[in-house]
Amino acid sequence: MTHIVWSEDLATGIRVIDGQHKRIIHYINQLSDAQNLDDRELVGEVLINLVDYTLSHFAFEESLMDEAGYEASSIHKKTHEAFRNKISNYKERFEEGEDVTEELYKLLNVWLMDHIADDDSSYVPFVVQNIPGINNEEQAGWLRKKITQYFG
Hints:
Layout: H1 15-36, H2 40-68, H3 73-95, H4 101-130, H5 140-151
Helix pairs in contact: 1-2, 1-4, 2-3, 2-4, 2-5, 3-4
């Protein structure tokens, strides 16, 4: 497995979301390292962190869409729900002793690229338009509250 490197092609235009995507890339890269070390316990720890963070990220994205009044949020939420179900299945299989590391790594790679390119690009302009200053200090308090709610 090779490491994913963040590039500006992956940027959504919402700094907090880009930061979360960078964190997900970090966990994916840790998953790769854990497999390369052939350390099942470490794979399990990374898997738990990655799953938890991904689910928090989804909840955060959904809260932004709701806050902005994004009309197609139900479609985006269904995509998240389908991914949650896949991840839950991987977690169960891992707990039953199966090595799902490489399969999960591939899924996360494809999902991350597709999710950013397709799913996120559909809501980002709406959020930016309807949550003025989301990338500015004027929203710092609101944004900090949201981040703490989902990640803190």
